[in-house]
Amino acid sequence: MTIKRKACIAGAWEHPLRKAPDKSTAQLHYECARGALADAGLDFKDVDGYFCAGDAPGFGMLSMVDYLGLRVRHVDSTETGGSSYLSHVSHAAHAIATGHCDVALVTLAGRPRAEASSGVAAAARPNVPEVPFEAPYAPVTLNAYALAAMRHMHEFGTTAEQLAWVKVAASHHARHNPHAMLREVVTVEDVLASPLVSDPLHKLDCCVVSDGGGALVVVRPEIARSLQRPLVSVLGAGEAVKGQAGGRVDLTYSGAAWSGPKAFEEAGVSPHDIRYASIYDSFTITVVMQLEDLGFCAKGEGGRFVADGNLIAGVGRLPVNTDGGGLCNNHPSNRGGITKVIEAVRQLRGEAHPLVQVPGCELALVNGIGGLLGTRHGSATLILGRD
Amino acid sequence: MTMIPERPLPAPIVDVFTAPFWQAASEGVLLIRRCKACGEAHWYPRPFCPHCASDDTQWVPASGRGTIYSFTVARKAGPVPYVLAYVTLDEGVTMLTNLVDGEVEALHIGQRVQVTFRAGEGGAAIAVFTPCTTP
Fold first, then answer.
1. ipTM field
2. What global pTM score does this model have?
């Protein structure tokens, strides 16, 4: 059983708001759902499968199905942090392939800016097995990624300048995105001159904190062909969870080393075939590690791979995050997975901004990392193709 | 040179399983968990072995010495900066911890460190690590 060409992404919509003091989280989910369904040319009454994750308010999926007035026969609330929505696309394709639904709606929304709730430490609550042995030391999100960055530099000679190039590339893309939070082009020097927040990461090595959200509509291919939109097919997917392995900690690679090969195998393609990649960019180090783990370069070569503008559309060898990514555009609800899928869909449709559109983009990869790279995280890979 | 800053530590979470761990900490001993079936140590402690799934595991005292696997100076995560680190104990397991009592500029991966204890909120002892004064 494969999901290759068993489902298409027919609708994709990103909320233009980056600060939403006057809207509830549930309302943002609704607006994203409405936008993606309109993009596909479908309606709420067509939806028979619904997917959401930990950002959904109340009783999560139960609250949202009720709030949106959906009548569904398949639901999935897989929660892997920021990578959840890539898993949702994969799971929706499985559900469609096995006849459990025809039109799957995926939504994400949140308002961490309005609520000033980003990067909080794990709550010291009982009955979470790792908490007694980790919470006393305050492994806040940013710091857990910094631990991985520090080790990567030690083992492979990766430099702060190389990490900064990931941000520079994002800023070159964001200047063309009217909705991006940070539209000013920055240089390597700008990144290094920004304050160290958790060594070796500087303030500009970190993604933005934004409100908003996004939604996707995944449908049966026959339905996709009946709509007036370019066909974007799901070709392959992989998922992995990586933790501390009972104390055998290895921070040099991410779960993408496991989720990537599965997706490539299912799609029957290799990294050399990929024309555009959306790579989860919570921090600059996150991108460098995923590019290595996905096979775009050898392990330890990620720093050199991203340097000198190699991720900039029209300039480099692999255009990455042409919307400006989480580093400059948008990281709604502290979860960047859905915006990664949305920009890949734009590229495959030929609907990215003309100045960052990859000519003849027929094959794209999306990778998401959810949770904390340094302690435990999920990785999800999607390979999408234009048919 | 800047001395490593320290933040106040919270009270530990004590339950039936972790009570012996915190009792030993109050006596200045860091316990880890070792499997009698496969012989492997694991961290964080569990009532079974994550390597072989046997439930024949026991608390054993660690030497309290290890090396820094990675570290970061957390400058903006709270009101007070602190140093978060992974330390690989000589028993082979790597644990998340805080570093104290050294010079920030001298910290480096591979550095030898030893366990010491700090009082958390309410007075319970919490293991942290400090650079070794002897090799």
1. 0.96
2. 0.97
